[in-house]
């Protein structure tokens, strides 16, 4: 580590100094063996070598200390640079984390706005579909809805072998009502007839405005007698009701049961034929085929 690196020059210096002192001592002994110095010159020579040795040792020690200080300074500089780098890295990481948090918050906000927009769009689509499937005058379902509903009911009737029938209703002498009282009163009569019919049918039956003064009812789970009784109930409810300025309103009805080999057109054509016969026989009556 750093402490070990700092003590390495000093250890080397001490080893070098000991070796140097040993060498000096050895040289003194050799010199005295070669030259016959007297005992009075011995201290001078010894101290001369000693001074030289100390001077050299001091210079060496100073050199090693300077080198050690340089190494320590370099290590401290590296540590400072590393700490500065770590601080910069932490700062960058903090900025990245903040940016990520901001991005997640922005995504959540946009997702919520998108969900709200989608719900609003779905509600508008449902409202638009309701408008497209509803007669604006009478507020009951229109012919577009009837076409889809009849296809589904015919499939279910074939699949489950359950009876299904069509009842066509037409307001008698409606042209005379418009000519006598005006089209506004005629519209009121249409609305009131639709309201009486809607309140008189069963919960699972489907009433639509076919067009003009005609209405169509899809009735399920009825046999011949039940079909006729249901049609007569509707005719009676219309006849007994009051319609403001118009004294009396009656309807003619044509009804028919679905047969296994029928197409949708076959079923509607037979109901329309029954309605035509009801009108031909004097109106305000029910004909079932």
From TrEMBL:
Entry keyword annotation includes Transmembrane helix: yes
Q: Which Gene3D superfamilies match?
A: 3.30.70.270
- What InterPro entries has UniProt attached to this entry? Diguanylate_Cyclase, GGDEF_dom, Nucleotide_cyclase, Rev_trsase/Diguanyl_cyclase
Gene Ontology cellular component?
Answer: plasma membrane
One Pfam entry name: GGDEF
This protein's UniProt keywords: Coiled coil, Membrane, Transmembrane, Transmembrane helix
Asked whether the keyword Coiled coil is assigned, the reply is yes
Question: Where in this chain does the record put each GGDEF domain?
Answer: 162-289
Coiled-coil residues are 104-134
Which parts of the chain span the membrane according to its record? 12-35, 41-61
GO biological process annotation, one example: negative regulation of bacterial-type flagellum-dependent cell motility
> Which Gene Ontology MF annotations are present?
diguanylate cyclase activity
NCBIfam families the record matches? GGDEF
Q: What is this protein called?
A: GGDEF domain-containing protein
Q: Which organism is it from?
A: marine sediment metagenome
């Amino acid at each position: 580590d750093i402490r070990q690196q700092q003590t390495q020059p000093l250890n080397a210096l001490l080893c070098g100094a000991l070796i140097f002192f040993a060498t000096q001592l050895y040289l003194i002994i050799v010199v005295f063996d070669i030259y016959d110095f007297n005992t009075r010159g011995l201290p001078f020579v010894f101290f001369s070598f000693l001074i030289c040795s100390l001077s050299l040792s001091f210079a060496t020690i100073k050199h090693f200390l300077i080198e050690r200080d340089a190494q320590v300074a370099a290590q401290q500089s590296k540590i400072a640079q590393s700490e500065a780098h770590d601080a910069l890295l932490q700062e960058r990481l903090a900025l990245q984390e903040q940016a990520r948090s901001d991005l997640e918050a922005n995504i959540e906000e946009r997702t919520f706005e998108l969900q709200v927009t989608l719900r609003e769009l779905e509600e508008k689509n449902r409202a638009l579909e309701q408008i497209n499937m509803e007669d604006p005058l009478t507020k009951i379902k229109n012919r577009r809805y009837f076409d889809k509903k009849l296809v589904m009911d015919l499939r279910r009737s074939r699949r489950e072998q359950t009876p299904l029938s069509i009842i066509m209703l037409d307001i008698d002498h409606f042209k005379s009502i418009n000519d006598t009282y005006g089209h506004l009163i005629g519209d009121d009569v249409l609305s009131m007839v639709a309201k009486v019919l809607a309140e008189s049918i069963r919960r699972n039956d489907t009433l639509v405005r076919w067009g003009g003064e005609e209405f169509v009812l899809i009735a399920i789970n009825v046999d011949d007698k039940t079909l006729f009784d249901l049609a007569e109930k509707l005719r009676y409810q219309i006849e007994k009701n009051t319609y403001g300025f118009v004294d009396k309103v009656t309807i003619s009805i044509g009804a028919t049961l679905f047969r296994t080999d029928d197409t949708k057109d076959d079923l509607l054509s037979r109901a329309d034929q029954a309605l035509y016969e009801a009108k031909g026989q004097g109106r305000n009556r029910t004909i079932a085929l």
